[in-house]
Specification:
- The chain folds into two domains: 92 residues; 97 residues, no CATH class.
- It is built from eight helices and two strands; from the N terminus they run E-E-H-H-H-H-H-H-H-H.
- A two-stranded antiparallel sheet has the order 1-2.
């Protein structure tokens, strides 16, 4: 069933939602691979999971498969994927995480503040999918590739910096909105 005014489906079973569920569940597979020190397998699985994040929104928009729950599922899948990836890299490259602990704590704290701000104001988590978050996604891919092929650690700091900026923008968006919205491209769109 499609809401004609907003062109958003009320049903859950869409291809993009399936991709989000696959990403969330598949992310759990990163952890045992990391424990077994299978860096190449962790990288391969992560790239497969990340590719679903690249296409789910495009499929939703292009084939009229946007759903009310889609942006929330996407956010949950992203948090699950990045949490499992971070834990996997921590298991395999602990030295890198120790060196970047300040960057990591600031990024996590900014995400926590963004979530709390939205929960307090709107009683829901933010699902803005802003451009700064999309840039963070690509920087995170580069950082993950670098770390999982035993490359330099500086891309990790860059990724956490961009994530922090995206979270600060999310806080600003929440503060400017008068009602909850999804898929806000930037602070300039509110």
């Amino acid at each position: 069933m499609v809401d004609v005014e907003t062109n958003i489906r009320s049903d859950v079973w869409t291809i993009p939602n399936g991709l989000c569920i696959f990403r969330a569940v598949g992310s759990l597979g990163l952890l045992p691979l990391a424990v077994m020190e299978q860096q190449a397998a962790v990288l391969a699985l992560y790239l497969i999971l990340a590719s679903t994040d690249l296409v789910d929104g495009t499929i939703a928009r292009r084939f009229n498969q946007r759903s009310k729950i889609g942006p929330k599922l996407d956010s949950i899948a992203d948090v699950t994927m990045y949490s499992c990836l971070a834990l996997s890299i921590l298991v395999m490259r602990r030295d890198v995480f120790v060196d970047a602990i300040t960057w990591i704590v600031v990024a996590i704290a900014s995400y926590f503040v963004a979530c709390v701000t939205s929960l307090v104001k709107f009683r829901c988590l933010p699902s803005y999918h802003n451009w700064s978050a999309k840039v963070g996604f690509f920087v995170a891919i580069l950082a993950s590739i670098s770390l999982l092929i035993d490359g330099p650690a500086w891309p990790l700091r860059a990724a956490f910096s961009v994530v922090t900026i995206a979270n600060l923008e999310s806080i600003a968006i929440t503060m400017r909105l008068t009602q909850p919205r999804q898929d806000v491209r930037s602070i300039f769109d509110v």
